[in-house]
Structure formats: structure tokens, C-alpha cells
Design goal:
Helix content is about 75%, strand content about 0%. By secondary structure, it is mainly α. The chain has one domain (about 5-134): Up-down Bundle (Four Helix Bundle (Hemerythrin (Met), subunit A)).
Length: about 130
């Protein structure tokens, strides 16, 4: 159960990005900066800010899916311990940092470091889990 708080924070990141994306897209259309026909088929014609937030939102359904799966497996197998908990918080913190960079200055190098560090941490968690179940 101690793994639920970092899981909920990761879910919250996704929902906050979803709401921000929706707000920015509606605002873009209402202001006349974007015409609905220009984005109806997924064309990349949103404003820069709406695109940044949308890209960050979509990114939450890539690698983080493996985090969700691992947390579920750790809870089912009762293998969660303090090391997994610290790693889970580290992963979520890095994902939050990645999202903040993504929607703000979008500095590619900074974003890459946060992305890479979170992925390495997730790989370590999966490796540790794999060893524990073998």
C-alpha cells in the first residue's frame, strides 16, 4: 500500500496535463488562433503552448505504463519494500521534472537528462523485481 502515493502522483501528473491541454486547446480555438478544421485530423496546427502540453500529456502513456504495471505487480506479489518505495518516488519526481521542462522552456538537453534518469531508474526497478521473482 505504501506504493500508492507515488502511483497517485503519477496519475495526477497525467490528469493535470490533460486538463491543461484541454484548456489551452479550447482557448486557442475560441481566440481564433486555431480553426477547428486545421486540427480536425490531428494536424500539428495547435499553438506552441498547446503543442508542448499535448506532447507532454501523450508522453505519459509511453514509458510510464511500465511503471504502472510494475507497481501493480509489486503490490500483488508483496515484494514492495523501502528500496522500491524510494525508487518509485524518484521515478515520479523525475517524471514531474520532465513534464515541467516539457511544458515550460522545453530545453531538450535538460528534458533528455530527466527522461533518461527516470528510465534508468525504472529499468533498475524492473531488474530488481525480475531478480526477486526468479
Amino acid at each position: 500500500m505504501e506504493l500508492l502515493p507515488p502511483l497517485f502522483v503519477q496519475v495526477a501528473i497525467t490528469f493535470v496535463l490533460l486538463l491543461a491541454m484541454a484548456f489551452l486547446r479550447v482557448k486557442s480555438i475560441k481566440s481564433g488562433k486555431v480553426h477547428p478544421k486545421d486540427v480536425a485530423l490531428g494536424q500539428p496546427n495547435w499553438t506552441e503552448k498547446a503543442t508542448k502540453v499535448g506532447n507532454s500529456y501523450h508522453n505519459q502513456f509511453q514509458i510510464p505504463v511500465l511503471f504502472y504495471l510494475l507497481i501493480g505487480l509489486l503490490m500483488i506479489t508483496n515484494l514492495a519494500d523501502s528500496t522500491f518505495l524510494y525508487c518509485a518516488w524518484g521515478y515520479v519526481g523525475l517524471r514531474l521534472l520532465h513534464a515541467i521542462i516539457h511544458v515550460s522552456n522545453n530545453n531538450i538537453l535538460m528534458r533528455f537528462y530527466a527522461f533518461a534518469a527516470s528510465n534508468v531508474l525504472l529499468m533498475v526497478m524492473w531488474g530488481r523485481f525480475g531478480l526477486a521473482v526468479m
